[in-house]
Amino acid sequence: MTDFKLRGFALAALLLASCGQGKADMAGAATVDTNVQQQLTPRPRNAQTALFAGGCFWSAERDVERIPGVVDAVSGFAGGSVPNPTYRQVSRGGTGHLEAIQVTYDPARISYAGLVRRFLRTIDPTDSGGQYCDRGDDYRTAIFALDADQRREATAAVAEANRILGGRVMTPVREAAPFYAAEGWHQDFARRNPALYARYRAGCGKDERLREIWGSQADAHREV
To answer: Which residue of 31, 46, 63, 201 lies most exposed, with the fewest beta carbons within 10 A?
Structure first.
């Protein structure tokens, strides 16, 4: 995978032709301290945690945070062998990490099974090589089951998606893995940089592809 992926879009869109390209160039974008963010976000007493890899974590964070019952999501990395990796290390390859989001949710408002089902409808689970214009191992999708109950419920949700999509689902359910938060400027990127993110998302063709795969069910990723 390379940081620079020219896709033939107009010059303005080329800046964000892919999540990796945008990240390589946008270190001056609006930023947030992850520790402060988590301290300021009210958490229900019984809040639970889920861990997903959904391709570019800008999109994964933005889409999952719009699901009712989700408290917040933090962008980062999981599944690799290098502790506390930087974005540059992961994007260069060799760490084994996937871009991931750590999700805090309120089980009184949404069950883990319901959350996984909604998450699957924010991604293209039939793509084993990345997501949309973001290609490479670190953009592959996965569900990290943090305990036996999560594994059972995630496996059932993936099986349901596989039936709907004709046996083409490639998203695995993986064992729990340590999560490492990404640098502050990656956090809440879509919310803090709406124009830049909108150009990236449109150039990548994410929403069109979601509608191709999921039809009306793709609406599950939109704000309600």
So the answer is: 46
